[in-house]
Amino acid sequence: QVQLVESGGGLVQPGGSLRLSCAASGSMLSRYTMGWYRQAPGKQRELVAGITSGGGTNYIDSVKGRFTISRDNAKNLVYLQMNSLKSEDTAVYYCYARAVYSSLVDYWGQGTQVTVSS
Question: Quick one: which of 65, 35, 37, 39 has its CA closest to 51?
């Protein structure tokens, strides 16, 4: 069993930065592919960034060059560094974990609100 807790969300002006953190407990983080999803009001949840157990990353086109996902397996932490934030980045951001050995074993955090507004 894995529990995920996000932190770091808040209100920021356009062009500003935030770093989201996801703390995992209950299992070895190295056994999971990790990701950050977001969901804006009236829209479907979308994968923003993902990182494999080996450190490979991928991003949705709209955040490439602005966001960076990273992980520290020793500390059971996953980060999302968000720079040059835009109003369209406003959403609830969710941490996600999926076992590398089974797509049926996955977990979600409760989410953290990111609001980009002047």
Answer: 35
Instruction: Tell which residue, 76, 68, 58, 72, has the closest CA to residue 17.
Output: 68
* Cβ pair 49, 117 in contact under 8 A: no
Max CA pair span of the chain: 44
Model confidence over 36-63: pLDDT tens digits? 999 999 999 999 999 999 899 999 999 9
Which residues are CB-contacts of 74 (< 8 A; sequence separation ≥ 6)?
A: none
> First CA to last CA across the chain, in angstroms?
40
pLDDT at 5 over 80: yes
Say which amino acid occupies 108.
Answer: W
How is residue 55 written in tokens? 């450190």
- 104 HSE (CA, 13 A, CB side): 0
Residues facing residue 14 across a β-bridge:
none
**Beta-bridge partners for 99:** 32
